[in-house]
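fyi for ur records
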Amino acid sequence: MREVWRRLRWLLHRGQFERELEEEMRHHLEMKGGETTQFGNVTLLKEDSRAMWTGTFREQFGQDVRYGLRAMAGNKLFTTMAVLSLALGIGANTAIYSFMDAIMLRALPVQHPEQLVLLNWHAKAQPAVIHSFDGGGHQDAKTGFTSSYLPYPAVEFLDSKSSVLSDLFGFTYAGRNAVIFRNAAALADGQYVTGRYFTGLGMLPAAGRLIDSEDDRVGATPVAVLAWDYWRQRFAGDAAVVGQTILIDTLPYTIAGVAQPGFRGLSPERIADFFMPLHSIPKATMRLTDPHYYWIAAMGRLRNGVSLTQAQAALSTSFHQFVVSTAQTEKERADLPEILLQEGGSGIDSLRRRYSRPLTLLIAMTGLILLIACANIASLLLARATARRREIAVRLSLGAGRWRIIRQLLTESLLLSFLGGVLVVAVALPGMRLIFWLLASGNTDFSIQPALDWHILGFTLALAFATGILFGVVPAVQTTSVEVTPALKESRAGALHGRGKRFTPGRALVVAQIALSLILVIAAGLFVRTLANLESTELGFNRDHTLLVTMAAKGSGYKDAALIRFYDDLLDRFRSIPGVSDASLSDFPLVGGSVSAAGVRIPGLPVAGGEAARAALMPVGASFFTTMKIPVLMGREFDRRDSADSVPVGVVNEMFAKKYFAGINPLGPHFGVGTRGGKSDDIEIVGVVKNARHDSLRHDTPPIAFIPYSQNHLFIVNLVTFELRTVGNPLIFANSVRRIVQEKDPRVPIYNITTQSAQIDRTIGQERTFADLCACFALLALAISCVGLYGTMAYAVARRTGEIGIRVALGAQRRRVMWMVLREVFALSSIGLAIGLAAALSMTRFVESFLFGMKPNDPLAISLSVAVLACAALAAGYAPAWRASRIDPMVALRHE
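which gave:
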């Protein structure tokens, strides 16, 4: 308390204290006869006296901040370049971290998400006990084939046997459904849930009530719960819609309530606009009773005091009992699936698996940018520190401690980094939008929406502090490592820069910048070439002047023959639009990222290896090949005569004919495919068409069997895509298409209108964004590195002004002076390029999976990258070299 009181008295009477201290120092100095050598350093003694009365850190920190701000204001160009470099580096890292937080770290907006567990199963391969599988899975290096989808009887069995879970509930994606409200139709994503779904999550309704066990039973009135965002968007947040009826795929549902804000389901990649009870699935008896049909995901909540390991042991025994009871043959008992529990607080981990590698790559790139920015600022600070040698020497001679000066220099560095952090928002927000489209690949339903919340701002603050220390500590230590007497005597005219110390820390930082920049430039070259390879891929059809219109009439009540008549009438109306030369339809657009594979029966033609014949199945309309300009190589294409009453026909592609009819005329033979209603009739092959890209530019064209949708309408589940061949820009016909569909039936929603070119570009959106982003990063790295190299060489020339003047006065030619400077630039660049090339060659394997049509050590991309960076480095060093060659000898000799 005495210490606190003493410090308080000093603060209140600081002026009086300073006057008394000055008088006392003067008195003692007079007693020593005015000799400072006997008395000591007066300034240092005053600082020691102040330290005895009060802590000086706060005062000194304020002095450091004020001095740092004045120094930054006095060198506006350096400050601007440093702050912008840091803002770009920190902003890019902040944007990436926001996605890491949203995908990897953010918990579900439910009560106690840490208690949730997701039920998975794993096996060596897809087990034979699974007769039907409607869901996703992935290969894991440790567990083998792993999936989250179970049969509904297994969920009921585990619920009845489990003593470690307080709740167990199931859910599954219902697809994109036509939702009609007050005669207005729109498409929305639904999800089927069990009765304890919302209670198990511990959720409360925002309006009305949520689905409970009474709703999820046979004979219950169908109800639906709306997601908060969908309720605000489609129903304008009107609470009066609770209790009203909507049609979901023509079936009436009563709106029971609205879910709490922020909740869109448990699968981040498949957001839910509304939720329905599981037992309201049309014709769901087979799904709900078949123990061999794996189609529903399940999640549970651990009881208090139960660990994940304990739950795993308990549920493993119960699940094994279930699958053993369902195995009917030795083959089915050979490889039974085993239960695998994982933490479910973040929902289904499909996004984490899918985007972990892109995020890792982006983190690596932005980390390199930040390192280059730090190295650039550190090299400029080191170069600028040569001009402060006298200043530091004077401070040290006056009694300043080395740590005191280091602290002041670090304060200047931290001010730069925090100013850069302030500008992060201007960089991070656009960066987040760009990365959003990168990860979503243009999918507007992508549910991850990162935001600059306090978690992200805290990360930004910590990163700004770390970068300030990172690029400031080396210059601070180097600057204060000065011998006082030689520095005070040193003149710039007589200083021969760098003699005896060829590889200084400043040069090492320049080399590091060039090496890191080369890694980014090579990555940009690889991705740009990958994009070029994808864009130059042979499609097998004409992508230009084609409008794609996707709609769902089946969900609006059209079935069987009525569905065919509806689509045929729309095709006739579309063809009558002036400027439309032809029109057709298909279940999926070409290069649409979707494929429908089916087993193919080819009588009398055995397949090598005993494998069942399989092909991609594509229902299409009449004139489809003419509309898409796919060449017909043999036979004919579909036309109006191929109706439901005519002989079933099909057209196959070259791959199909080559694989299953090698050496045989493919026209005339028959094949069959399975349908959801049983067997289809034998289909006669009437044509062979050229191979055309089907689902992706990256994948080879599979065997494809085209069938008329008018003969096989059961294959068209919901969405269909109309293709319109137009004259000129296809998008100018969009309004005409909307008007025709509205006049025909306003209940039929149009899902999307785009062009075939835009559709293809969307499938390579990740590659395009990677190429653009890496190119931007490479240009930024080049700019930062060139600035660092220019600053280092400019300061070097300034320090050697006297030496250069003497050389010129003694007869040195100007070109020799230029070469003297450029030689150092060439040496630094060569070392940096050699190190960067070695590092890049050892790291390119990490991006191999992102490349297409090339190897990660592609000679063209690497050689061009080295040439670009070498030219940029020499260009950055040319200006200081030219300036050095123009130094006037008389001015240089008088230079001080």
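The first strand starts at residue 116 and ends at 123. thats all i got for now
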